[in-house]
Amino acid sequence: MRNLLLYLQYDGTYYHGWQIQPEDVTVQQTVEAAIFKIFKEEISVAGCSRTDAGVHAKKYALSFFTDCKIPADRVAVALNTALPCDIRALVCVEVCENFHARFDTVSKTYQYIINNGNFDVFMRNYCWSVKNKLDIQKMKDAAKFFIGKHDFKSFMTGDKDSTVRTVFLLDIVQNGDFINIFISADGFLYNMVRIITGTLKRVGEGKLDADKIPEIIKARDRRLAGETAPPQGLYLYDVKYENY
Amino acid sequence: MRNLLLYLQYDGTYYHGWQIQPEDVTVQQTVEAAIFKIFKEEISVAGCSRTDAGVHAKKYALSFFTDCKIPADRVAVALNTALPCDIRALVCVEVCENFHARFDTVSKTYQYIINNGNFDVFMRNYCWSVKNKLDIQKMKDAAKFFIGKHDFKSFMTGDKDSTVRTVFLLDIVQNGDFINIFISADGFLYNMVRIITGTLKRVGEGKLDADKIPEIIKARDRRLAGETAPPQGLYLYDVKYENY
């Protein structure tokens, strides 16, 4: 039995998220079908994250055990012959037997893209089109309050026992009409990036003071944060492991 | 009766081109349906170009006559409420009664996007992914032979009486892994941009000498030119009229 770590890129527009569901087509199911076709094995893969419907991945990691002898460096090319063109296998490496793509993540980075210019038909599935002119400096002022170890209960959907996470980086990078938000953390709560993005948007619109962010974090109350930004602007951008 | 000139942007991925067809969904039909919904008139619009299935438009022009009283500067906003999100009305102006969006074009500009880096799932419907490393300088050397008034019979699909066109500009602009080809002319033959692109690609691959282009033009023989580049990399980029 070998344990393989595989990196993917996918356009999530036409999938109901990563995780297998009984009725809908998901990325996990599509990848497992391609593995079955190439490896002739029914394999259940472990993904690094459960991305939602419409969310994309520029670098997604998964791991799985196999008896198949295909050399690791040829797995990506082989799988791409069986994957649809909105999912691409990037690289595959053999890892130690106790490696797990979800539990062993050291950090993950998400990118969120806001289009603050005119609506662009070519980007309609790949960004959030925001009409109100956003003040980037205010957004940057607000962003710094999220960095560090905090209880992010105000910035999640649903409930969970442990809501403390460490944000390593929250960068806001302007590129013409597009505003890119990059956020790295040791882990993310459900909808955390999308709610932080919605909150930063409110700050950028001048409807919320950047200085209010510490209070909102402290309150542990979802109602005080901004709206949940839509899924199509969100990309899993990077996943880091200790040894790979 | 007023004559209106309307500019559009559309993602051609899911349309069978511009022109109305009996069986398939086209951009023209979709726009006319939106006009019917807003203007309550059955109007046949005149488009500036017959783009093929999968071809996009960053700026497309059409004109039509109407009895409707909606002010021209409110037409785009009104139509966007009835158009699907892969077609956007940009601007509408009232024009003189003998204006025609197709016959009055002074020049049109097309953009062709080649991805010369790794396959990118997000760009799969928006560029031609070319693996062989292309030599941009050779492509630029070849490009200059196309500029001017020439018989472009070698660079068209099908046949036509008059195959002389004037190319005003053929620019090749690199942007990271992406190679953008911009070509302006007084008119284009069927598949002309895609065949010129396929020919430039051959030159970039080192399979055809840039200096051979004048001979290929002179031969008026389609078989001597390069392959027809696929539709998804092609964009109608601009349309110019004398007075608008």
Report on this structure.
The structure is a homodimer of 244-residue chains. Chain A is of the alpha+beta class and 244 residues long. Chain A contains 5 helices and 10 strands, in the order βαββαβββαβββααβ. Chain A is globular and about 60 Å long. Chain A starts with a strand and ends with a strand. The mean pLDDT of chain A is 95. At the A-B interface, loops of A face loops of B.
Classify the helix fraction of chain A into a percent range.
10-25%
Strand content of chain A: 25-35%
How far is it from the N-terminal to the C-terminal residue of chain A, by CA?
Answer: 19 Å
Structural class by secondary-structure content of chain A: alpha+beta
The description of the largest β-sheet of chain A is: 10 strands, mixed
Uncertain spans of chain A: none
Output the helix-strand order of chain A: EHEEHEEEHEEEHHE
